[in-house]
Amino acid sequence: MVALTVMVSPPDLQREDCKFDRRCIGTVWTIFSGLYPSERGHTAQMTQTKTDRIYRSLHDRIKSGELAEETKLMSLRRAAEQYGASKNIMVAVYDQLVANGLVYARQGAGFFVAHGVATTAEPANLREARDSVSLLHAQLDRPYKVLVGDGRPPESWLLNAAPSVTLASGEGGYGAPHGLLALREYIAAAHGAAGIHVQPDQVVTTFGANHALDLVIRRFCRAGETVLVDDPGYYPLFAKLKLAGVNVIGIPRGPHGPDCDALQSAADHYQARLFFTQSLAQNPTGCSIDLPTAHTVLQIAERHNILVVDDDPFIDLPGVSGTRLASLDRFQRVIQIGTFAKVLTPTLRSGYIIADPEISHSLAELKMVLTVNSSSHTERLIADLMRTRRYEKQCARLSRKLKQEREIGVQQLKKIGFEIAPEQAEGLYGWLPLPAGTSDIDVAQKAAEVGVFLAPGALFRIAEHSDCPALRLNWSRVNDSRFYAFLRQSL
Predict the structure, then answer these.
(1) In the chain, which residues have pLDDT < 70?
(2) Exposed, middle or buried: residue 180 (CB in 10 Å: 0-12, 13-18, 19+)?
(3) pTM
(4) What angle do CA 50, 55, 57 make, to 5 degrees?
(5) CA dihedral in degrees (229, 214, 457, 451; nearest 10)?
(6) I need a labelling partner for 340 at 20 to 30 A (CA). Which of 52, 84, 120, 423 fits?
(7) What is the distance between the alpha carbons of residues 323 and 277, in angstroms, rounded to a whole number?
(8) Cα–Cα distance between 134 and 149 in angstroms, integer?
């Protein structure tokens, strides 16, 4: 495995407000270094001279806008002390910055950042968001032999042949902003069969659940505002919120759902507009919300005028107990997000939002502004799968296979000495606590060196919980002898 040296600024330039970014770089990139070098990876190679490294450090700070236009650089003497370099090296660095138009020299005054240098600079919140989803790089590129930490079922479990699709008259254009009516009708009918009344105009189709989250965040979040999230929770959501510039407060997630005392305290202290959670078989803990907790969550949301976003990628999977918030709320405050990608195939980027008609209409209008519409072709294909009940059979098949693999996995882990909470007896994900004093980041790094991809619990956290190390398991991929052998040898 190729090591990656992470370059940081001098000590007096490291700010506390960069803590999240530094922690992500120092942990995530350490695990996947060499496989997924960052855009600035070429600046950290061991073959570089000290002159190159100092130049690149100042180059990046100027390009990012950290050193703004007309900022005066340190004197050559002070810079030499700061970087532990000779004055001749700093002269060479400053000359190179001048030669590349990044700074200019003012006689008798020193060196200053030139105008217009950072006009195309990558925003800091984009860098932080990108760094926090480094785990996703590994799942997309898939260089590992054993994928216990992956977030999806194996391809062999999913739809391996889609029916041919013929669009009906009127479906070949851009379509209505809400999405294909036929699919929205099937989604509404499926919820009706589950006892939750939904009208088709409450449904907005999307390019998957992540697109749905983007629309909700774009519609309701403003930079500097506060939102509440499950902790541990869905890490790509954290990246999206970081990109939006909002303040994220984690609500501890327990075996029966969010910690209601913590939710109440956060609601009292912050003027949060949204709470992102997951009712059933939550990612990453595998636990569902029980009825008393669901009631309390909705009561807190009502008192504090909070919208609850319930993101459930396995909403149609049978055999999962727990209480869906929408079954109590009837979409007064709940915004439901669903997707077909995890059950059918990731190549079908299609999902949906269900909400109060006024909210769904505004989200449909926003969707039209941003993407015109989602894919009528994909939505017709899924509608045909639902019409022929092939989708229902696929969900049942996936549920049976998951149950079988999960039961085997729980027994295998018990033999090694691990205990899985009974609340995790359903769904795709499991939460495996590690021995006290263990670093889940270090465990994942050691596993990566032998071709085993693990998902350390730290990446699913908002707050640091070094005293509660854990791994997120994918029950559909856990039963591999190489994974169990690694656990026996390493823990």
Answers:
(1) 1-48, 118-143, 161-164, 166-167, 169-175, 466
(2) buried
(3) 0.75
(4) 95
(5) 170
(6) 423
(7) 13
(8) 13
